[in-house]
Protein backbone atom coordinates (compact mmCIF):
# COMPACT_ATOMS: atom_id res chain seq x y z
CA UNK A 1 0.00 0.00 0.00
CA UNK A 2 1.08 3.57 -0.51
CA UNK A 3 -0.02 4.63 2.98
CA UNK A 4 2.83 5.20 5.42
CA UNK A 5 2.61 5.15 9.23
CA UNK A 6 2.01 8.86 9.20
CA UNK A 7 -1.07 8.53 6.98
CA UNK A 8 -2.47 5.88 9.27
CA UNK A 9 -1.93 8.07 12.35
CA UNK A 10 -3.64 10.99 10.63
CA UNK A 11 -6.60 8.88 9.57
CA UNK A 12 -6.84 7.51 13.14
CA UNK A 13 -7.02 11.02 14.50
CA UNK A 14 -9.70 12.04 12.01
CA UNK A 15 -11.67 8.86 12.76
CA UNK A 16 -11.62 9.61 16.46
CA UNK A 17 -12.61 13.24 15.91
CA UNK A 18 -15.50 12.16 13.69
CA UNK A 19 -16.80 9.72 16.29
CA UNK A 20 -16.66 12.39 18.98
CA UNK A 21 -18.70 14.89 16.97
CA UNK A 22 -21.09 12.24 15.74
CA UNK A 23 -21.76 11.44 19.41
CA UNK A 24 -22.14 14.99 20.61
CA UNK A 25 -23.94 16.58 17.61
CA UNK A 26 -27.36 16.71 19.24
CA UNK A 27 -25.89 17.99 22.51
CA UNK A 28 -23.28 20.16 20.89
CA UNK A 29 -24.62 23.58 21.78
CA UNK A 30 -25.00 22.63 25.41
CA UNK A 31 -21.52 21.16 25.33
CA UNK A 32 -20.08 24.46 24.14
CA UNK A 33 -21.63 26.28 27.04
CA UNK A 34 -20.25 23.76 29.50
CA UNK A 35 -16.74 23.58 28.07
CA UNK A 36 -16.30 27.33 28.00
CA UNK A 37 -18.55 28.17 30.97
CA UNK A 38 -20.72 30.10 28.53
CA UNK A 39 -17.82 32.31 27.41
CA UNK A 40 -17.85 31.05 23.81
CA UNK A 41 -20.84 33.31 23.20
CA UNK A 42 -18.89 36.48 23.96
CA UNK A 43 -15.83 35.25 22.04
CA UNK A 44 -17.89 34.41 18.97
CA UNK A 45 -19.61 37.75 19.16
CA UNK A 46 -16.18 39.47 19.09
CA UNK A 47 -15.18 37.39 16.08
CA UNK A 48 -18.33 38.50 14.24
CA UNK A 49 -17.55 42.14 15.05
CA UNK A 50 -14.02 41.75 13.62
CA UNK A 51 -15.49 40.45 10.35
CA UNK A 52 -16.85 43.98 9.62
CA UNK A 53 -19.78 42.56 7.67
CA UNK A 54 -21.55 44.97 5.31
CA UNK A 55 -24.96 46.04 6.64
CA UNK A 56 -26.26 47.01 3.21
CA UNK A 57 -26.72 44.97 0.06
CA UNK A 58 -23.00 44.70 -0.79
CA UNK A 59 -22.14 41.10 -1.47
CA UNK A 60 -19.92 39.37 1.07
CA UNK A 61 -19.06 35.69 0.84
CA UNK A 62 -18.05 34.00 4.08
CA UNK A 63 -16.72 30.47 4.34
CA UNK A 64 -17.03 28.95 7.81
CA UNK A 65 -14.73 25.93 7.95
CA UNK A 66 -15.49 23.25 10.57
CA UNK A 67 -18.70 25.22 10.99
CA UNK A 68 -20.51 22.35 12.74
CA UNK A 69 -24.00 23.26 13.90
CA UNK A 70 -23.81 26.70 12.29
CA UNK A 71 -23.11 28.98 15.24
CA UNK A 72 -20.83 31.35 13.34
CA UNK A 73 -22.96 31.15 10.18
CA UNK A 74 -26.11 32.15 12.07
CA UNK A 75 -24.42 34.97 13.91
CA UNK A 76 -22.94 36.37 10.68
CA UNK A 77 -26.29 36.19 8.87
CA UNK A 78 -28.06 37.92 11.76
CA UNK A 79 -25.42 40.64 12.09
CA UNK A 80 -24.77 41.42 8.42
CA UNK A 81 -26.99 42.76 5.64
CA UNK A 82 -28.78 40.88 2.85
CA UNK A 83 -25.58 40.67 0.78
CA UNK A 84 -23.97 38.27 3.25
CA UNK A 85 -23.81 34.68 1.99
CA UNK A 86 -22.37 31.89 4.09
CA UNK A 87 -20.93 28.54 3.14
CA UNK A 88 -21.20 26.22 6.12
CA UNK A 89 -18.51 23.61 5.70
CA UNK A 90 -17.77 20.59 7.90
CA UNK A 91 -16.56 17.02 7.68
CA UNK A 92 -19.36 15.67 9.85
CA UNK A 93 -22.86 15.16 8.35
CA UNK A 94 -24.45 14.84 11.82
CA UNK A 95 -23.19 18.31 12.80
CA UNK A 96 -24.24 19.75 9.42
CA UNK A 97 -27.76 18.32 9.80
CA UNK A 98 -28.18 20.37 12.96
CA UNK A 99 -26.74 23.41 11.14
CA UNK A 100 -29.13 22.95 8.22
CA UNK A 101 -32.14 22.78 10.54
CA UNK A 102 -31.05 25.80 12.58
CA UNK A 103 -30.33 28.08 9.61
CA UNK A 104 -33.59 27.04 7.92
CA UNK A 105 -35.60 27.69 11.04
CA UNK A 106 -34.06 31.16 11.29
CA UNK A 107 -35.18 31.84 7.70
CA UNK A 108 -31.70 32.01 6.14
CA UNK A 109 -32.07 29.03 3.83
CA UNK A 110 -31.44 31.08 0.68
CA UNK A 111 -28.21 32.61 1.93
CA UNK A 112 -26.60 29.45 3.27
CA UNK A 113 -24.89 26.73 1.34
CA UNK A 114 -24.01 23.55 3.18
CA UNK A 115 -20.98 21.60 2.01
CA UNK A 116 -19.41 18.47 3.47
CA UNK A 117 -15.67 17.85 3.23
CA UNK A 118 -12.29 18.19 4.90
CA UNK A 119 -10.57 21.46 5.73
CA UNK A 120 -7.37 19.97 4.33
CA UNK A 121 -8.77 19.96 0.81
CA UNK A 122 -11.42 22.61 0.23
CA UNK A 123 -13.66 21.90 -2.79
CA UNK A 124 -13.71 25.56 -3.90
CA UNK A 125 -11.74 27.44 -6.56
CA UNK A 126 -9.10 29.99 -5.65
CA UNK A 127 -10.36 33.48 -4.66
CA UNK A 128 -13.92 32.33 -3.83
CA UNK A 129 -14.47 34.12 -0.49
CA UNK A 130 -14.13 37.53 1.17
CA UNK A 131 -13.48 35.97 4.58
CA UNK A 132 -12.77 32.53 5.98
CA UNK A 133 -13.41 31.61 9.61
CA UNK A 134 -12.63 28.53 11.63
CA UNK A 135 -13.95 28.51 15.18
CA UNK A 136 -12.92 25.79 17.63
CA UNK A 137 -12.17 23.70 14.59
CA UNK A 138 -8.49 23.90 13.73
CA UNK A 139 -7.35 21.78 16.68
CA UNK A 140 -9.45 18.89 15.34
CA UNK A 141 -7.90 18.91 11.89
CA UNK A 142 -5.04 16.39 11.60
CA UNK A 143 -2.99 18.43 9.11
CA UNK A 144 -3.32 21.99 10.30
CA UNK A 145 -0.71 23.38 7.90
CA UNK A 146 -2.73 22.10 4.94
CA UNK A 147 -5.93 23.59 6.34
CA UNK A 148 -4.24 26.99 6.72
CA UNK A 149 -2.84 26.91 3.17
CA UNK A 150 -6.27 25.96 1.84
CA UNK A 151 -7.99 28.77 3.73
CA UNK A 152 -5.57 31.23 2.12
CA UNK A 153 -6.01 29.73 -1.35
CA UNK A 154 -9.79 30.17 -1.42
CA UNK A 155 -9.63 33.77 -0.12
CA UNK A 156 -9.89 36.63 -2.59
CA UNK A 157 -6.96 39.08 -2.46
CA UNK A 158 -7.76 41.54 0.32
CA UNK A 159 -9.66 38.82 2.16
CA UNK A 160 -9.09 37.95 5.79
CA UNK A 161 -8.83 34.70 7.72
CA UNK A 162 -9.86 34.27 11.36
CA UNK A 163 -9.17 31.41 13.70
CA UNK A 164 -10.93 31.35 17.07
CA UNK A 165 -9.57 28.60 19.29
CA UNK A 166 -8.82 27.65 22.86
CA UNK A 167 -5.34 28.90 23.67
CA UNK A 168 -2.64 29.00 26.34
CA UNK A 169 -3.63 30.41 29.70
CA UNK A 170 -1.04 32.99 30.74
CA UNK A 171 -2.09 33.79 34.31
CA UNK A 172 -0.49 31.39 36.84
CA UNK A 173 -3.26 31.17 39.46
CA UNK A 174 -5.93 30.99 36.84
CA UNK A 175 -3.98 28.19 35.18
CA UNK A 176 -4.45 25.89 38.20
CA UNK A 177 -8.17 26.50 38.32
CA UNK A 178 -8.37 25.99 34.59
CA UNK A 179 -6.47 22.68 34.85
CA UNK A 180 -8.86 21.33 37.45
CA UNK A 181 -11.83 22.52 35.45
CA UNK A 182 -10.60 20.95 32.22
CA UNK A 183 -9.29 17.62 33.45
CA UNK A 184 -11.69 16.91 36.30
CA UNK A 185 -14.85 18.92 35.87
CA UNK A 186 -15.39 18.81 32.09
CA UNK A 187 -15.14 14.99 31.65
CA UNK A 188 -17.56 14.59 34.60
CA UNK A 189 -20.00 17.02 33.05
CA UNK A 190 -19.61 15.13 29.77
CA UNK A 191 -20.39 11.88 31.55
CA UNK A 192 -23.51 13.13 33.29
CA UNK A 193 -24.91 15.44 30.66
CA UNK A 194 -24.00 13.73 27.41
CA UNK A 195 -23.30 10.24 28.76
CA UNK A 196 -19.89 10.37 27.15
CA UNK A 197 -16.83 10.93 29.32
CA UNK A 198 -14.29 9.85 26.67
CA UNK A 199 -15.49 12.28 24.03
CA UNK A 200 -15.06 15.15 26.46
CA UNK A 201 -11.67 13.90 27.59
CA UNK A 202 -10.57 13.93 23.95
CA UNK A 203 -11.75 17.52 23.64
CA UNK A 204 -9.76 18.64 26.67
CA UNK A 205 -6.62 16.84 25.46
CA UNK A 206 -6.89 18.35 22.01
CA UNK A 207 -7.00 21.80 23.58
CA UNK A 208 -3.79 21.12 25.51
CA UNK A 209 -1.96 19.87 22.44
CA UNK A 210 -2.84 22.88 20.32
CA UNK A 211 0.14 25.17 19.49
CA UNK A 212 0.63 28.25 21.72
CA UNK A 213 -0.43 31.56 20.11
CA UNK A 214 3.00 32.61 18.79
CA UNK A 215 3.50 29.20 17.17
CA UNK A 216 0.10 29.37 15.50
CA UNK A 217 0.90 32.88 14.24
CA UNK A 218 4.14 31.49 12.80
CA UNK A 219 2.26 28.64 11.09
CA UNK A 220 -0.10 31.18 9.55
CA UNK A 221 2.82 33.22 8.14
CA UNK A 222 4.31 30.01 6.75
CA UNK A 223 0.97 29.35 5.01
CA UNK A 224 1.36 32.73 3.30
CA UNK A 225 -0.83 34.99 5.45
CA UNK A 226 0.28 38.58 5.96
CA UNK A 227 -0.21 41.05 8.82
CA UNK A 228 -0.83 38.13 11.18
CA UNK A 229 -1.91 39.09 14.69
CA UNK A 230 -3.84 37.68 17.63
CA UNK A 231 -5.90 38.79 20.59
CA UNK A 232 -6.11 36.66 23.75
CA UNK A 233 -9.59 36.36 25.27
CA UNK A 234 -10.28 35.77 28.98
CA UNK A 235 -6.66 35.52 30.14
CA UNK A 236 -5.73 33.34 27.18
CA UNK A 237 -8.40 30.67 27.60
CA UNK A 238 -9.14 31.44 23.95
CA UNK A 239 -7.47 33.54 21.26
CA UNK A 240 -8.54 35.06 17.98
CA UNK A 241 -5.84 34.91 15.29
CA UNK A 242 -6.18 36.71 12.01
CA UNK A 243 -4.20 37.12 8.81
CA UNK A 244 -4.74 38.68 5.39
CA UNK A 245 -4.38 37.40 1.90
CA UNK A 246 -2.91 40.44 0.16
N1 LIG B 1 -17.33 26.03 14.48
C1 LIG B 1 -18.32 25.48 15.39
C2 LIG B 1 -18.36 26.29 16.66
O1 LIG B 1 -17.53 27.19 16.82
O2 LIG B 1 -19.22 26.06 17.50
C3 LIG B 1 -18.07 24.00 15.65
C4 LIG B 1 -16.77 23.62 16.30
S1 LIG B 1 -16.66 21.91 16.76
C5 LIG B 1 -15.79 22.02 18.30
C6 LIG B 1 -15.44 21.26 15.70
C7 LIG B 1 -15.93 20.89 14.33
O3 LIG B 1 -14.81 20.55 13.51
C8 LIG B 1 -16.84 19.65 14.30
O4 LIG B 1 -18.07 19.99 13.73
C9 LIG B 1 -16.07 18.66 13.43
O5 LIG B 1 -16.88 17.81 12.66
C10 LIG B 1 -15.24 19.58 12.58
N2 LIG B 1 -14.07 18.96 11.93
C11 LIG B 1 -13.20 18.07 12.47
N3 LIG B 1 -12.27 17.72 11.59
C12 LIG B 1 -12.53 18.40 10.44
C13 LIG B 1 -11.90 18.45 9.16
N4 LIG B 1 -10.81 17.73 8.89
N5 LIG B 1 -12.44 19.25 8.22
C14 LIG B 1 -13.55 19.99 8.49
N6 LIG B 1 -14.18 19.98 9.68
C15 LIG B 1 -13.69 19.19 10.65
From TrEMBL:
Per UniProt, S-adenosyl-L-methionine binds at 69, 90, 135
Query: So, what pathway does this thing act in?
Result: Quinol/quinone metabolism; menaquinone biosynthesis; menaquinol from 1,4-dihydroxy-2-naphthoate: step 2/2; Cofactor biosynthesis; ubiquinone biosynthesis
The stretch of residues making up the signal peptide is none
Biological process (GO) annotations held by this record are: aerobic respiration; menaquinone biosynthetic process; methylation
Xref: Pfam families? Ubie_methyltran (PF01209)
One MF term from GO for this chain?
Answer: demethylmenaquinone methyltransferase activity
- Enumerate the UniProt keywords alphabetically: Menaquinone biosynthesis, Methyltransferase, S-adenosyl-L-methionine, Transferase, Ubiquinone, Ubiquinone biosynthesis
Q: Which reaction does it catalyse?
A: a 2-demethylmenaquinol + S-adenosyl-L-methionine = a menaquinol + S-adenosyl-L-homocysteine + H(+); a 2-methoxy-6-(all-trans-polyprenyl)benzene-1,4-diol + S-adenosyl-L-methionine = a 5-methoxy-2-methyl-3-(all-trans-polyprenyl)benzene-1,4-diol + S-adenosyl-L-homocysteine + H(+)
InterPro entries the UniProt entry points to: SAM-dependent_MTases_sf (IPR029063), UbiE/COQ5_MeTrFase (IPR004033), UbiE/COQ5_MeTrFase_CS (IPR023576)
For this protein, the parts annotated as crossing the membrane are none
EC number(s) on record? 2.1.1.163, 2.1.1.201
Q: What the protein does? A: Methyltransferase required for the conversion of demethylmenaquinol (DMKH2) to menaquinol (MKH2) and the conversion of 2-polyprenyl-6-methoxy-1,4-benzoquinol (DDMQH2) to 2-polyprenyl-3-methyl-6-methoxy-1,4-benzoquinol (DMQH2).
Family statement drawn from the similarity comment of this UniProt entry? Belongs to the class I-like SAM-binding methyltransferase superfamily. MenG/UbiE family.
Identify this protein by name. Ubiquinone/menaquinone biosynthesis C-methyltransferase UbiE
This protein's species is Terrihabitans soli
Q: Which gene encodes it?
A: ubiE
